[in-house]
Amino acid sequence: MKRIFISHSHKDSAYIADIKGVRLNDNHSLAFHDRSLEEPVYNDFGHINRRSPEDSASKLVRDEILALLRQSDKLIVLVGNDTHSSLWVQWEIEQFSRIHGERSIMLMRTPDNHRGGAPATVRHLSLESWDLQYLSRWARR
Questions:
Q1: What does the pLDDT look like over 91-140, one tens digit per residue?
Q2: Rounded to an integer, what distance in angstroms lies between the CA atom of residue 109 and that of residue 106?
Q3: Per residue in 37-51, is it b (16+ CB within 10 Å) or e — as a string?
């Protein structure tokens, strides 16, 4: 079973729940080991870290995500209306590409995305429509 990290803008978190819910359904063929963050990473003050990846205060978040990316076989990038401007999504794509290359990256448009594109670094990759059956087939390859 493949180990998959799901990169997304936090505005698209509901779709993560959809994917994880289908993955747990025995009647659906989508199966993978989820390597995404289970919970947000908090700063020293107990607040969710919302700083950019380049900010030194984000080191704990970067380290945790980087460890998960290293353990992942594939990367799904959910492309919502604002994903193209997410510094964290761009950083995750860059790190995964550096470690594993681009062949194991899939871009999938969220159902409500009618205008947003992929981050500039991966615009040359195919942008798939929201299709959990397609995602299931891709995850097994």
A1: 999 999 999 999 999 999 999 998 888 998 899 999 999 998 898 888 88
A2: 10
A3: eeeeeeeeeeeebee
